[in-house]
């Protein structure tokens, strides 16, 4: 699944910053990266990212995530808020539901931070 997600992400020149393995990080950059990696440090949130990355329309409704994740709507919403706070997903309200899409640029930024 990680390979599928990697292939779905196009790293642009703007998204690339020096790898944390190439140069020392300043405190602000370290805090920014840590927020993203902390959000990824949960299996349910990783599954949400993979579902969003594979979504045919590029977005998924909270109601569409409940079944595949086997979690309640409030729990899924909590995980989505954590991902949104880390800048990894964006939500758009459509009627009574919020549709979420993956922020591929932010994911690529975290990915490139780990490249050697």
CATH topology descriptor: Arc Repressor Mutant, subunit A
Query: Strand portion, in percent?
Result: 5-15%
What is the molecular shape? elongated
H-E order: HHHEHHEEH
- Strand order, largest beta sheet: 1-3-2
Round the mean pLDDT to the nearest integer and report it: 84
Helical coverage, percent range = 55-70%
Q: What does this molecule look like?
A:
It is a single chain. This protein is α+β, with helices and mostly antiparallel strands and 116 residues long. The chain has one domain: Arc Repressor Mutant, subunit A (Orthogonal Bundle). It contains six helices and three strands. The protein has helices spanning 2-8, 27-40, 43-54, 62-69, 73-85, 104-114, and strands spanning 60-61, 89-94, 97-102. The protein has a three-stranded antiparallel beta sheet with strand order 1-3-2. α1 crosses α3 (43-54). The longest helix has 14 residues, at 27-40. The chain is elongated and about 45 Å long. The model is unreliable at 1-15 (pLDDT under 50).
What is this structure, in a nutshell?
This protein has 116 residues and is of the alpha+beta class. The protein has helices at 2-8, 27-40, 43-54, 62-69, 73-85, 104-114, and strands spanning 60-61, 89-94, 97-102.
């Amino acid at each position: 699944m990680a390979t599928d997600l990697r292939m779905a992400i196009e790293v642009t020149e703007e998204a690339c910053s020096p790898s944390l393995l190439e140069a020392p990080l300043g405190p602000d950059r370290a805090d920014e990266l840590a927020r993203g990696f902390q959000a990824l440090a949960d299996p349910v949130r990783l599954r949400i990212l993979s579902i969003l990355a594979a979504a045919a329309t590029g977005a998924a409704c909270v109601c569409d995530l409940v079944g595949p994740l086997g979690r309640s709507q409030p729990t899924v919403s909590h995980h989505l808020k954590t991902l949104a706070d880390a800048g990894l997903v964006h939500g758009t309200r459509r009627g009574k539901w919020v549709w979420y899409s993956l922020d591929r640029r932010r994911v690529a930024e975290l990915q490139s931070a780990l490249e050697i």
